[in-house]
Write a structure and sequence with these properties.
By secondary structure, the chain is mainly beta. The chain contains one helix and 15 strands, in the order αβββββββββββββββ. Strands 1, 3, 4, 6, 11, 12, 13 and 15 form an eight-stranded antiparallel β-sheet that branches. The chain binds calcium ion.
Length: 243
């Protein structure tokens, strides 16, 4: 051993002795780095199914899901078990030609409702004069009717009508007729924007962007807000969906 090697060996010995309790040799490989922990995935919550804004099969026996029930004069608004689409109960509006007769049920919509889908099953068993109609759905903005879908009396045609903003109406023929004493599924959809779509028994019969004096709605109605709008109207499984 030459002198240099002897010095290095001595230093190594001194370091080993000085470190004493350190068992790892000074020239050992560095410790393996701690593994980066794998991030734990944040659990994705199972979404709670969101139902429509309103669904009423009338099996409750009442109109408690609705905001307002109107039956004035000799009109009646009832839940009955004789004529039903599904289950054991359905709604029924009876309105006569009496000057004080008026019947409807209506639902106040969430503020700012601008797109809406209304679906229901309707069975018309009584109608008035040929210049009137039996409504299915009507949509309002602060008391002003914006549009509605209805069956014209006698001629039996299914029509859509929109407020023209000048005290009148614009009429759209759905080119379908509805027999009395028969159930039909009518769907009225508004939005996005001013696109209006009407379906009958699952078949789209109208879809068009049309002028609407308001694309915001505050209330949805089954029946009519007018007196003497004669009807015997049965309805079931009404759905109001707000996308
Ligand atoms: Ca029912």
């Amino acid at each position: 051993m030459n002198k240099t090697l002897a010095i290095v060996a001595t230093i190594s010995l001194v370091v080993s002795v000085t470190l004493g309790t350190i068992t790892r040799p000074v020239d050992a490989a560095p410790p393996a780095p701690c593994p980066t922990p794998t991030p734990t995935a944040t659990p994705v919550p199972t979404p709670t199914p969101v139902g429509p804004f309103l669904f009423d099969d009338f099996e409750s026996g009442n109109f408690s899901k609705w905001t307002t029930v109107t039956a004035t004069g000799d009109a009646t608004a009832t839940v009955q078990s004789t004529t039903v689409f599904a289950g054991t109960k359905a709604g029924y509006l009876h309105v006569t030609s009496s000057s004080t007769s008026k019947g409807n049920i209506s639902k106040t919509l969430p503020a700012g409702t601008s797109a809406i889908s209304l679906t229901g099953h309707f069975n018309i068993q009584g109608e008035g004069l040929s210049n009137s109609n039996v409504p299915a759905f009507r949509l309002f903005n602060n008391g002003t009717r914006i549009l509605d879908v209805y069956r014209q009396n006698v001629s039996a045609g299914l029509w859509l009508r929109t407020n023209n903003g000048a005290g009148g109406w614009t009429f759209y023929n759905m080119n379908r007729t509805l027999n009395k004493f028969q159930w039909y599924t009518i769907k009225l959809q508004v939005g996005p924007a001013n696109t209006v779509t009407v379906s009958l028994d699952g078949t789209q019969v109208f879809s068009q962007a049309i002028p609407l004096v308001s694309t915001t709605f505050t209330d949805a109605m089954v029946g009519a807000e007018h007196f003497q709008q004669v009807m015997d109207l049965y309805f079931d499984d009404i759905t109001i969906a707000i996308p």
